[in-house]
Design brief:
mainly alpha; Substrate Binding Domain Of Dnak, Chain:A, Domain 2; single chain; 285 residues
Length: 285
């Protein structure tokens, strides 16, 4: 290997260290920012849950269920973002370590070459002084040294090819894993929020309007003049007795619409990128 090739290999190792250090920094920043935003969003949603709503039981429970579902989505995203620290950052560290090792191997190779050059120089001196014993000893050492240099060169080249093969493939999966986490979160959001929207939209807080006027003991006020319809709301209470009446039960959000299910299934089939696949790739690193 020429000095030019040695420098090329060395620059390659140094560049990959910089690249993976940058990727690691980016994902670490993303994780830290997401963690900070997570705490702020959860705190904000909790503020809604803490609203002092004593006059309308249905509205009170809308706030409660909205907060619970949003908090659940935040926890779901938190678990997905943890995979950045558990999977992606360690993968970057692995390749940083590999790049450092490649640079060390090149350094060892160069040291062996220098040692061989020194032995060659000593051999010429032994020949000039007709030191047969020294000459024979140096010939044996040079022969052994050249064999080690050849083996070292073969190992460096082989390792560099294997490194490059795995690096480009695993770099792709690092990016895909992050994209998959984002897709999974947004698909889950569509699933949960669609159902939550449908359930909340089906509720009518004005059902409690009559109770409010009675509670406030308004004189000469008819609730029907303000949108309350006794017959309509009586039928409404009967039709929604399973999810809400004067003893309103908390919304139970489960299942997804057919169109949403199709989207989730389609997303899950994309490249089949999941935790097990990433773990398998890391185990092969």
């Amino acid at each position: 290997m020429s000095n030019l090739e040695e420098e090329k290999f060395k620059r390659k190792a140094e560049q990959e260290m910089k690249n993976y250090e940058l990727i690691k920094t980016v994902f670490t920043k993303i994780y830290d920012i997401e963690k900070e935003l997570l705490n702020k969003r959860k705190s904000s949603f909790q503020d809604i849950a803490n609203i002092d709503e004593d006059d309308n039981e249905i509205l009170k429970n809308i706030y409660k269920d909205f907060t619970e579902q949003m908090d659940g989505l935040e926890k779901y995203r938190e678990n997905l973002m943890k995979k950045i620290q558990e999977k992606l950052v360690p993968a970057c560290k692995y390749y940083i370590s590999n790049s450092k090792q490649a640079k060390k191997d090149i350094g060892k190779y160069k040291d062996k070459k220098k040692q061989n050059e020194k032995q060659e120089f000593e051999l010429e001196k032994a020949k000039a002084s007709r030191n047969v014993i020294k000459e024979s000893q140096l010939n044996d050492e040079i022969k052994k040294s050249k064999l080690e240099i050849g083996n070292e060169l073969n190992n460096i080249q082989k390792n560099m090819i294997v490194y490059e093969r795995d690096r480009v493939e695993d770099s792709k999966y690092i990016i895909l894993h992050f994209i998959h986490c984002e897709m999974t979160y947004h698909a889950k959001s569509v699933e949960k929020l669609s159902k939550l929207y449908k359930d909340i939209n089906a509720l009518n807080p004005k059902v409690c309007l009559k109770g409010f006027t009675d509670k406030m003991n308004f004189q000469g006020v008819n609730a029907e003049d303000f949108g309350y319809n006794e017959r309509e709301f009586t039928n409404y209470k009967k039709s929604t007795s399973n999810i809400g009446d004067s003893n309103y039960k908390s919304l139970k959000v489960s299942g997804i619409e057919k169109s949403r299910r199709g989207m989730i299934q389609s997303q899950n089939s994309l490249n089949k990128i999941d935790e097990e696949e990433i773990a398998e790739n890391q185990s092969n690193m």
